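Class, discuss our next protein.
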Amino acid sequence: MSRLADYFIVIGYDHDKDRNGSSEGRIIQRFPETDWDSCPFTQSIELFCRPIGWTLSANRQPPEFFVAVLTDIDADRHYLSVLTFSESVAISPTKSDDGDTEEDTALNIHSLMYSPKSIVLVSRLDYFETFKNCLGIIYTAYVDKLDVQLEVLVGNILGCVQVPPPGGPQVRFSIGAGDRQALQPPLSASVPSSRNATALLFQQLGIQNVLTLFCAAMTDHKILFHSQSYSRLTDACQAINILQYPLRYSYVYVPILPAPLYEVLNTPTPFIAGVHSSLAEDTADLVDVIIVDLDGGSVHIPECVNLPTLPEPMVSRAKKTLTMVMNADLLMADYAFPPPSPKKPPSLEQKDKEIRAIFIRFFAELLSGYRSCLTVIRIHPEPFITFHKANFLGHRGMVDVDFLVRVLEGMSFSTFVAERGNPYRACDIFDEVYSNIHDLLTTETADPEKVMEHVKDLAKHLHTNENPNPQPYVQKVPKPTDGAYSRIHQTPFPVLNSDHVHTILHEGIEKHSLKSKMTVRPNQVRIVPMGTPITALVDRQRMVDNNARRLEVLRNCINFLFDNKISDARIIFPAVLRALKSRVARLALTQELGYHIRSNRAVLEHQQFDLVVKLLNCCLQNDSSMDENGVAAAILPLATTFCRKLCTGIIQFAYTCVQEHAVWQNMQFWEAAFYLDVQKQIQQLYAPHYEENNVSDKRDSFPASPTHKNNELNVAKNSSNGQTVSSERRSSYRSREIGVLEIAAEQLRVWPTLGEEKREEMVSNEESTVYSQAIHYANRMVYMRVPLETQKSIKTLSPDWESTSNSNIASSLADSESMDAESGYDEMEISDVGANVIKFVTRFVDKVCNESQVTQEHIKSLHQMIPGVVAMHIETLEAVNRESKRLPPIQKPKLLKPTLLPGEEVVMDGLRVYLLPDGREEGLGGNMGGPTLLPAEGAVFLTNYRILFKGTPCDPLACEQIVIRSFPISTLTKEKLVKLQYTPHIDQLPKEGVQLRSCIFQLMKIAFDEEVSPDDVEAFRKLSTKYRSPTTVFMTFAFAGQAIPQPSTMLKPVEKNASLKNFAKKTIMKTARKAGIAKQKAPKRKYVLPTPPMSRRSMSPRSSAGSDSESDRPVSEALDDLSIIDEGEFGRSWLSDPKVIERLMERPGYQDYVRQGFGEPSDSSVKGKSTEQFRISTVNSNFSVSKSYPALLVVPANFPDDSIRRFARTHRQYRFPVVTWRHPRTKALLLRASGFHGRGLMGMLKSDTTTGTSTGEISASLHQERYFSCIVSATPNSMKSYKPSYSDSLTSLDSLMLTGVQESLLVPETPEVVRRSHPAASSMRNISNPKTSFLTLPRRTRTRNAWPTFSRIGSIREKPRMNSSSATLDSSAMLHQNGGVNERSELLHNSVQGLKRVALYVLGEKAQMKGIKVESFPKCDFIPVEFYEVRQVKASFKKLMRACVPSAPLTPETGFHKLVEESEWLLQVQNIMQLAGATVDLLDVQGSSVIICLEDGWDITTQVVSVAQLLLDPYYRTIEGFKSLVEKEWLSFGHRFTHRSNQTAANQASGFAPLFLQFLDVIHQIHNQFPLSFEYNQFFLRFIGYHYVSNRFRTFMMDNEYERVEAGWLMDDRRSSKINHEQSELDAGFAQRHQSHQGTSIWDYIEKHHRKSTLFLNFQYSTRDQDVVLRPYSNISNLRIWDFFLNEDLAHGPAYEIETTNKEIQISEEERTDSSGQPLMRKIVNGCYDNVILQQPNVFRQMLQEIHKLETDLGHFQQKWKAVWDKLDLPTGKRETMQRNLSFNTQIVKSHGRSIHKRSTLEILVKGKMLGEAAKMFSQPHRFEKHTYTTPAYCDYCGQVLWGLLKTGMHCTDCGYNCHEKCTSNVPKNCTKLKIVPDTGNNSSSVSRSSDTSTLKSEEFPVESGPTFATYTPASANTENSCLHKGYLFKRGALLKGWKQRWFVLDSTKHQLRYYDSEEDTNCKGYIELFDVQSVQIIRNVQGAPKKADENAFFELKTNRRVYNFLAADAKTAQIWIDRIHGFI
């Protein structure tokens, strides 16, 4: 019996503290006034009575009732039942502090206020309804003035009402107010009472939200409810608590949290709490708390909270049943004739019980079999039972179920095991459901209708538990009259008589003391049902692969092993290793080995010992460190028993060879294994007391196995049928025995009947048992933890053992603080192995012994024993280690000799290694099938050309095959040491290995054998680095066996300036000329590649720092000026000799010019025929114009060489536009160049101070204009029409602007500013033919990142959002009915009107187009295009290599295709195809010439130009033509192969940039789409892709033609055999002292093999079936991942080494013979091992080989295959006369393909024009400032939440754009706040002109007039209109930091901020491009500012290049300037 309530309290408003300014409550009275001994009084109760605070109110509030919950220090809950009502309070005015007698009128507004008062009952019982009735009666007696003393009511409640415990009878009582009440205890104390709380929660939140909260509560997350109702908060928290039954919530539980205790929510521990909705806003800063809005029915889960998913199928079953309970009509909603609804719908309380029943069933199913995993450690005096978590998860197959793992690791489950693990106790509802759940589910599976029936039955039991009495008792509870609380004259709550209350209280206690002696029927204690064993729950379907055959093979192997039939055991050993991947097989292996131990076979021979160790290692490797299957626990006794004798007195045990596994470092494993063995000993201790267990096979600790072999077979068969071996199965009794839990239950039952001596004996026996096992396990742990080589530290043994141990045992430690104190990182540095092992074992002993109640004396003796054991064991192991190294080495396979190329030499002999598998699946024999080729054992060789591995597979079934993996040493990109894990088939794998990665998509992960010394490994690594990074290219394999050429020294800086005097003289003269002091020698100035002088030996024009195009190019003319050299330093042009030029013209690149009809070489003095428009110029014959350009260039015939020298400087690296191809039909030209130069700092320094602009710069720009004019005049499109290439309507790009194709064009969105600046009225136009009206830009909804942002202007930072396949044209929907263009299309209309008839298109970067005077280039259009920079190609290639050749197996989250997508490689390929496609259309369809001028003109430009020519000209699709294309575009025009491929040591740091490989991939994509159009096959492309980086051939070496000429290659005879040994004397001073062999050309090699075989021939090539111009699809869906990136041939290495491949194939075929010596006719071809193309050639190649063989056998003359192929007749029939009638569908497809291709072209042009026309519209940067967000906000760029721990972000002050600070660089510059003033002047981006500008002749160049943009004329009306703002500003100098006043003009036409010396000055001193401006802002505290300057008048203008500082007259003027400039950027 217990009290109904412990305390009664009256709490009121504290008026005393109110006068001091604080509003608080205080306890007025409490009864009893002294604390109960069993229940002390809780402080701060007044806070919970008014959670939102004690305040006065102007209105009287109705009484409120709610229940709050307090938790004391013992985790016991106290329930506060609070009834609050209002009392009137008179407010009197007070005097002010200064003594003023005047009354404050504000105090008289409410002279009568109302204060809250609460009456509270505190109880440990949860009878909420009874408490509400009692408090209501007290309030009724007070407010209605009943004839009842309040003291009597309070005394009766506290002392006279006694409540029986659960299971007791109903109590009926009255508290003395004429009331009748009844109180019914529940039947079970462990089953909570819920009333209707859970159903109410489901109504408020819904099923999914409640399940989410349930998952969060179970996995220890923080949950916070908020509502306007306190009662709802209590009910919701109680509901979540009740749903967790049978588990109990063990953390902080505060359903109603007062505002003053708000800091509780910041606790790091989990909690369930509730706050009033008025306080919900204060929860915004809780980043890891789940917020639940009960009133709104929402659940907010923060981003940082990761909730696991509830396990299937339990959650699906629960959801379905919950839907049937909460939404019963949902299942019948679709019925045509639904049944009538029930007259009485189920009540909320009934739903509540059914919901609880569903969750009880959920837990019963989730925890099925948990009692089978309980481990009994002690029975007497108190039972101690633990739970084997790993065993449970392993048997249930739920190791990866995160939800269950977290639940089992939580405190709630630990309490669950402690309370319910006892096998002899009272049972409740859960125990009954648990014991029957398996049968119920089986029944429901057969009959789903039974589900609700079973749920309702369980709900009835729950209802009966709460309401045992079926007859309800009618209660009588007085209630106040209606409106009683609002009476005006209501007396305050009276002060109760304390003595009277205490008198009644004591009388009641004495009166009931007699009644309390009556005995209540105790709960029936019984043996807890075991339920379904966990072994019966395993899905038998999962065990299908564990058949009896595999176990039979396992047993046979072990029998062979112990019968010493080692050869037989080795034959079936691989099958055994594969079988050990099964859990049952591993357990069967331990049983078999245990059987042989009992047969006294523990001492093994050496070979037996090695195989046993291999089996044990394989078992441990296939198991996890958790040991969920019990394999490691079963191996423990085996490893400490199997041994071999090394010598007399020295024995090595197996545990010394199985220590390298993480399971031995897992403290939880040791605890579980120890407890299991203790349980076995406890079971054996009490087993003899039971007759049915007399027959037993008592053993110490070996795994279970019957005593004879037949029974062993039965065990194996049972295992094969799906019966797994549980922890109990491994015990020493048969399966018919009673379990240890039943023994424990019986012992607990008889314990009260035993005598004291018997009890003490039992306790002593159990304690001794635990102690003996602790000693045993301490020794075992020492054995497994001390390594064989004791000199090695624990760190060497396993780098992360401590961290692993910590993470694994944290949940099982009782004292975590001591654990943390001993397991810091300091231990990682301890080298003493013994100290670490002692620490580990001591920690284990402390934990298990304290938990198992071992005496302190025994624990102390253990502590003293452990150091001695460790020391003795270390001493023993030293002898074992010494003797084990003296064993004769195991005979290893013979090292195979590699097949070498001619000239290839072995640098380092073979080192014995293991080739280990990497992340690729090929060759592993798993899912890919085939033999297990890896790992392989062999040797790694280092030659002067390759790194080569050759060996045999370790798998005995595949050991007859040879595995070869190699790659050229020059392709090595990364070499690193890697940690190795245990690998099957390898006995003792070293700790570390070497991983070598190659850029030809090869990876070699090797582990050196123990016989290889560390010095050899280091030597191998150093030699690899040496040969990978030679000093010059002449040290590579291409020049192997020959003397290194000694290049000429005439151009070396040391020779040119041999003495200090000469050097000083030249330097002074150059400086004087630049300063204008000395006379200029203009005729003798040349412009060469702007690179520093270098030796010829390095052959690299740049240092490693200049790796990418953005860093290679000079950003100003400073570098250009350094490259100006005197012509006198050169001799005369060595190419002026006609014989030399004639020999040079024989090269394939120059022969292509002759093929196109460009004529013969000539200089400007040679006048050709008037009809010749072009000539081959020798202006660069001595490479004085540009070192990176070829010697001969195609230029307009009427453009002199002298002009070329002058205007070449306008392009980066002096790579001016030259003609490279001419369209044979349209005569349109394709030109290539580098990007345009801007006028930089050096150019301004060189300018004359009087004239303002240098003459040379003016001359260069004018020569450039004339050059472009010559190109335009040579383009037929500029003068006449031409015949179109197709007979369709799409004859030109103009047709694409019409409405013929009903699709819309994808172009960037128009900003709001553009639409406002172009009124609709001005954009209306009358179009005569609506059907051919101009396409307009459709208005689209703005999406994030709709327009790609640029990292550097003109490059793509992110993935392009457009795809050519998505480009659509739809005009009809965008035109007005009157034919006009709507206002949104005006910008597009203005942008593309110049696309109609332009003779020359210049495709370049956006940055190049800014400074160009477009009006000076008539009939030219400058189109900015997007492209990927070199650095992006590098990064993409690295990601692609990791995707195609991963170093570790890929996870499902990072699949192969996902990694390829993330690399963006295919996007880059697509970009190149689109740019080349646009070039094709402009040349072929539009008939316009195209100049490609991107970056420095040697990377992206080369790619686009080469692909465009290959698409346009069928000649380049032949082998000879492809050779010409590569020689011309890649070699002659100076692609930097040495630099990009890192061929020398000087270029290593720049990083590998596969520009040429990317070009080959593009050709591969085109080849896939047009297989009939190429003479060469895919192998040809792969061959070149392999050898362009292999350094086997000299072709792809050096960076330009200049370096190759210097090396003497270009003057070599094509046939190297005829090269004479004489030295070639050249007039230019290049003394070529080279040997007879200058390296081999890849073209000679290809030609030689092409003559011999059809290796490179595409048999599908057809000259008559191919299209002249190819237009491939460039969508990502049409692109394929090149098989060059994926395939390899392990049989012979890369097939691109043709000589070694053929030799290896020949050797393997010679070895393939049958028993009689005849060659085998049958062969198995494996995809990853053999090269299918070589092993199984196509029919044409096979027939040609057969003909060759027959001719040889018959003795006939062997014809070349080409002759045979040409003799073949065409198929019979009239093929020549037959006309192929194209079907309508075919024509549609072809037309559609051409349309898509041209639309892609139009997209590029329109987007470029949009950039040029409205760049300022698209480049309005935001003004971001740091901003603190007090409420949740989201980033407008990435969509992620902004507020967090830092709570700061970036906020645009103009348009309100919000984003993260990291996102600011990617945000589109489209701020919509600022406005642009419409331009009235000429548009700078308008390209098309109605009239042609007359072309200036070379003699008419004006010299004095400067560029138009550099002049400011105040009187010009046009300039005045374009001048947006002007005025004086002080500008700070860049060099001397001085402030000077300048006149500034903000020009809207030129989009510049120009400055002059004064207002009257007409010569511009400089300008700032507004396109480059990034930000403008006010600055303060400027150092060195002028005196008396306004501090707020300084502002800063930041551009891409530098930061400018300005000073205005005052702050207002400065702000005006900032606003005007902001309006422009």
The mean pLDDT is 76. The radius of gyration is 46 Å. The chain is about 35% helix and 15% strand.
